[in-house]
Amino acid sequence: MAKKGKKRIITLECTEAREQGKPPSRYTTTKNPTNIPHRLEKKMYNPFLRRHSLHREIK
User: Fold this and answer.
1) What are the Cα distances from residue 7, in Å, to 10, 30, 33, 59?
2) CATH classification of the domain holding 50
3) Is pLDDT at 19 greater than 70 in this prediction?
4) By the 8 A CB rule, do 45 and 55 touch?
5) How far apart are the first and last CA of the chain?
6) Cβ atoms of residues 12 and 26 within 8 Å
7) What is the pTM assigned to this prediction?
8) In which region does residue 21 sit, left (phi positive, over 0), alpha (psi from -120 to 50) or beta (all else)?
9) Which domain holds residue 48?
10) Confidence category of residue 2, pLDDT binned at 50, 70, 90
11) Structurally, how many domains does the chain consist of?
């Protein structure tokens, strides 16, 4: 039988938007901190920049 992990809800925020003076886009997702102890980074779509950009986990 599979063990249940401790999933946490995290927020991903765009890293490139603030440098250009535009509002950052944010997404929410879940992660298991046992399997992924470091901060999560994903390329996701930013509607303000109209392209995919790097989104990093914020606290």
Assistant:
1) 9, 6, 7, 15
2) 2.20.28.120
3) yes
4) no
5) 33
6) yes
7) 0.83
8) left
9) 8-58
10) low
11) 1
Q: Which two tokens stand for residue 1?
A: 């039988």
42 — pLDDT class (breaks 50, 70, 90): very high
* Rounded Cα gap, residues 33 and 24, in angstroms: 25
Residue 36 lies in a domain: yes
Question: What is the number of other CB atoms lying within 10 angstroms of the CB of residue 55?
Answer: 25
Enter the tokens of residue 7.
Answer: 């999933």
Q: Check whether 12 has a pLDDT greater than 70.
A: yes
Q: What's the maximum distance between 2 C-alpha atoms anywhere in the chain?
A: 50
Domain-located, residue 3: no
